[in-house]
Amino acid sequence: MKIKLFIIIIISITIANDINSKFEFNQSTIQAFYFIVDANIYGEPLEEGVDWIVAYHNGLCIGARKWAGPYTDIPVMGDDGSNYSRGYIKSGELPVFKIYDQSEDIFYNANLSEQIPYPKGMVGMITIELLDVLLESSEITQHTLSNNQLYNNNNDYQVFNDYQYGKPKRFSYITSLPHDLNQYKKIVFNKKYFREFIGLSLITGILIYFDEDLIKKSRFMYDTFNISYTDNMKTIAEPFGQPIRVPGDLGSALYFIGDGWTQVSISMSFYCFGKIKNNNRALQTSNQILQGLVSAGFLTQLIKHITGRTSPFKSIDWDSHSTNEWNAGNIDVNDRWDFFPNQIEYHKYVSSYDAFPSGHLAAFMSTLTVITENYPEYPIIKPIGYTLMTLLSIQMMNNGVHWASDYPLSIAMGYSLGKIAVNNGKKNIESSQINYIIEPYANFDTIGLNLTYYLK
Cα(211)–Cα(403) distance, rounded to whole angstroms? Predict the structure, then answer.
């Protein structure tokens, strides 16, 4: 990691600036100054002392300066962790610049000659050679600040939290499957994770030993909270032969947390937001959720077809009366494994062979990992997600779909596949390789010399 050391030699004469009420922003202890060498609208230079250059982030004004000629410095406030700077820009992100033509009362989305991410440190200096508005690509917003775009529509990528996000390729959530499986193979067969593999195996083995007792104890969900242990999902449609089921009571609602349709709905929510707001991070999150769903579904189904473990509600009797016994309240379960089962029998009696591992939990964990990795600035997501995952896990034992030992591998798989999906869709910003920059600057109220030095 490089450390930026700013040595600033400034001779300044401070002249009070008349800040337009439209551009109010809070002062932050973290600031950067973008020095604009030249700025124009359709090739016409800005009017000195009249037109404004304004910086935005997340729809918030984070800095503004009236145009004062070459090297006008735009103060851009960063998020220093305080309430008054919440939502302001962070290191590695890109501010959005607009030009305000005061005589016409029009805002123009501005194009930058170079995209330089917001620097690290308390004070930063950045020089932009040209800020302009082109007739063929400008978007004009009159008399409002509410329609600010997060980034210029012509950008190939957008930056959030030191990562670049491009728009996902169509159907990449499917075409990425071979790559995802190859990456997952590198994790599974990597000696670096040997201890984690042993720990996962030990936890699973211990839970297998106590599985039957844990299933019986999970019935407290019904005894204490009257949460049903039977399947009360309702089918509302069957497109292409695949049933769309919705919850019929609280018990089935908890089970529905891990349903594939839930993950698809979350993905579509991010997709719609991304399309409406032109937000690549949301679009990538949508795509990565589906990508994790595809890879988790493939791997869990593969293992299910090999292990052939019977679900608890099917393990009371060997005949077809097991489900009736379970629905009647019988919890005298018997753990059974049938490795490499007959595949015809498997697809005829799926619940008698598909307990291990849990596809619901793997899909949920993958989705949660994708969201938390892409939106680290919202720490509340993790406790909410883990709470829902716990409720889902207990309910799947209460309704006899899974054993407790089905979960450790599912969680580990979901986490790994979610991380793989995220890494496919974002790129870490590389630090500058320049050792130092010395730049003079001057405007109507400030003259000085800026020395920026990079220590390796």
Answer: 6
The reply to whether 423 and 434 lie within a common domain is no
How far apart are the C-alpha atoms of 342 and 234, rounded to whole Å?
30
Least confident of 18-22, 114-118, 197-201: 18-22
DSSP structure string for 100-127: EETTTTEEEEPEESS--PPPSSSEEEEE
Each residue's pLDDT tens digit, 293-323 = 999 999 999 999 999 999 999 998 765 678 8
How many degrees, rounded to 5, is the angle at CA 129 between CA 136 and CA 149? 45
Confidence of residue 2 (pLDDT cuts 50, 70, 90): very low
CATH of the domain at 220: 1.20.144
Q: Are residues 104 and 205 in the same domain?
A: no
- Using pLDDT thresholds of 50, 70 and 90, give the confidence band for residue 388: very high
* Structural domain boundaries, residue 93: 3-156+430-455
CA-to-CA distance for 385 and 271, rounded, in angstroms?
20
| C-alpha distances out from residue 96 to 54, 88, 172, 187, Å | 8, 12, 29, 39
DSSP-derived 3-state class of residue 433: coil
**Which tokens in the block code for residue 215?**
């299933």
Overall domain count for the chain: 2
Asked if 123 and 241 sit in the same domain, the reply is no
pLDDT tens digits, one per residue of 131-149 = 988 644 333 343 333 333 3
Q: How confident is the model at residue 327 (pLDDT cuts 50, 70, 90)?
A: confident
Phi, psi of 379 (to 5 degrees): -65, -20
Whether 232 and 116 share a structural domain = no
